[in-house]
Write a structure and sequence with these properties.
Layout lengths: L1 E2 L10 H15 L3 E4 L4 E2 L10 E3 L19 H13 L3 E6 L3 E2 L4 E11 L2 E5 L4 E8 L19 E7 L4 E7 L24 E3 L4 H18 L3 E4 L7 H15 L4 E4 L7 H10 L5 E3 L1 H13 L13 H4 L4 E4 L20 H9 L5 E5 H5 L1 E6 L5 E6 L5 H11 L4 E4 L5 E8 L4 E8 L4 E6 L8 E4 L8 E2 L5 E6 L3 E7 L2
Parallel strand pairs: 1-2, 1-17, 2-5, 5-13, 13-14, 14-15, 15-16, 16-17
Antiparallel strand pairs: 3-4, 6-12, 7-8, 7-9, 7-11, 10-11, 10-12, 18-19, 20-21, 21-22, 22-27, 23-26, 24-25, 24-27
Helix pairs in contact: 1-2, 3-4, 8-10
Length: 487
């Protein structure tokens, strides 16, 4: 899978670019594409899509000052998804259901302020506030759905237009006397994240979101969904929603949730338990380790690289990442993996048995952008494509098959082999975060007498497999080599 966007993707090019790149992506070894939110957001044509406004507007209606979204028009979006399907690539749609933004009219409603650091603590008496909680989408005028959202559809807001106060307000409605139950006690209760927080205890809300998902599937034919901000949503909702969606579409729709909890494997496992295995999760725990390892140089013990990761404990539900739009430089969760380490990191997620790897757009294509840093300064960022990334993708497509043998027996130099299967020859992977390395590893007797070469071109001297199926393989300092049978 590839995340085919980043936070600073230029305006009005992505759908057209993706249509043109579909065949190239398939040839590169990409089997699925995670596309950014396709729906109209409060920021109109400049929004990345996470300040979601109208789920039914795919760049079709004049709303929020624009017809198109940041990425293009509805027609261009559907052309891109059609091109991906024609190339044999699955479409992964980014779904944002935690909140809505940019309401059309304000409502007077009763609410209480809560302590921002402990949302279970009320810090005011009930008071009347004014919030933009009414959404009727005048530009769409009832097409596709006549559902009108009002304050009964939300559990919290962050602004009172009567007083101009910015605070977290819990709305007093008929659906519960507190926030929805979360699996962790961060912030006391982290149900509220931003904007108008959707109230999933409201039956009509759940039904509307299911009907929308069916319409969206009929329209775009997505094969899977990336679910935004599940950390802030009740596991009950998505367990029900995914089951009903799969049942009503007749499709085994893939789902991966974004529960970003760096270094907190226990929370990922708890969410998987509460959603009864209905979705995979991004391996935020592994990403954190990759980030730390890349900043630690040879002091990091590579034998422990998978310790405490989701892919180690529950590989069937782990989507592994090296970086994403939230961890890239200048973003709120900034924690990028250093460039020198990225080839090593990608070899570890692309070429092993376990996990479903996701490549980040800048790592395959590179990018540059400008923004302000946390210190208020102006920065220009240049992200180079990862050295050898295309060769690593080809190695996954052609050689990452069959039995895996691990050689995690040195603090700085580790390796593994894949024996291949009836249709694919295997590979031997050796990497080091320190000095040059070498290791004798078994690839299998089927390769006795065969010559292996470094597909990444780091080493020019081939190696020969002995009669027992073993050979000595090499890698450069702070580098990775992928050895495959010479053709």
């Amino acid at each position: 899978m590839i995340q085919y966007f980043h936070w600073y993707t230029p305006d009005n090019i992505l759908w057209k670019e993706l249509k043109e790149k579909a065949g190239w992506l398939a040839n590169a070894g990409i089997t699925s594409v995670w596309m950014p939110p396709a729906h109209k957001a409060a920021g109109g044509g400049y929004s990345t899509g996470y300040d979601i406004y109208d789920l039914y507007d795919l760049g079709e209606f004049n709303q929020k000052g624009t017809v198109r979204t940041k990425y293009g028009t509805k027609e261009e979006y559907l052309q891109a998804t059609a091109a991906l399907h024609a190339a044999g690539i699955q479409v992964i749609a980014d779904i944002v259901l935690n909140h809505k933004a940019g309401g059309d009219e304000p409502e007077r409603i009763m609410a209480v302020k809560v302590n921002e650091d402990n949302r279970n603590e009320t810090v005011s008496e009930p008071e009347e506030i004014e919030a933009y909680t009414k959404f009727f989408f005048p530009g769409r005028n009832g097409k596709y759905s006549s559902f009108i959202w009002n304050h009964q559809c939300f559990s919290g807001v962050d602004y009172n237009h009567l007083t101009g106060d910015t605070a977290i307000y819990r709305l007093l409605n008929e659906h519960g006397d507190n926030w929805e139950e979360m699996i962790d006690d961060e912030k006391g209760n982290y149900d509220y994240l931003m904007y108008c927080d959707i109230e999933f205890r409201n039956n009509v809300v759940r039904e509307e979101l299911l009907q929308w998902a069916k319409w969206f599937h009929e329209t775009a034919g997505y094969d899977g969904v990336r679910l935004d901000a599940v950390k802030h949503m009740s596991p009950f909702f998505y367990t029900e929603w995914l089951r009903k969606l799969r049942e009503q579409t007749g499709k085994d729709i893939f789902a991966v949730g974004e529960y970003w909890a760096p270094g907190q494997l226990d929370l990922l496992l708890k969410y998987i338990e509460k959603t009864e295995g209905e979705m995979s999760l991004f391996d935020a725990a592994l990403h954190h380790t990759l980030h730390v390892a890349s900043n630690s140089g040879h002091d990091f013990d590579m034998r422990t690289i998978f310790d405490g990761s989701l892919v180690q404990v529950n590989p069937l539900l782990a989507v592994t990442v090296v970086d994403n739009h939230d961890t890239q430089p200048l973003q709120a969760l900034e924690a990028p993996v250093e460039q020198w380490f990225k080839p090593i990191a990608y070899a570890l997620i692309l070429l092993r048995v376990d996990g479903y790897p996701c490549v980040f757009y800048p790592d395959l294509f590179g990018c540059s952008y400008k923004d302000k840093g946390k210190d208020g300064g102006d920065y220009e960022i240049f992200l180079d494509k990862v050295d050898g990334i295309e060769a690593l993708l080809q190695a996954r497509a052609k050689h990452a098959y069959g039995q895996q043998r691990d050689y995690f027996d040195h603090a700085n130099c580790i390796g593994f082999t894949r024996e291949g299967d009836e249709e694919h020859s295997g590979c031997a992977v050796l990497l080091s975060n320190g000095e040059e390395g070498n290791k004798t590893m078994e690839v299998g007797k089927r390769y006795a007498g065969k010559t292996f070469t470094d597909s990444l071109g780091k080493h020019t001297i081939p190696v020969t497999v002995n009669e027992e199926g073993w050979a000595e393989f090499y890698c450069l300092a702070a580098s990775v080599s992928v050895w495959v049978e010479a053709v």
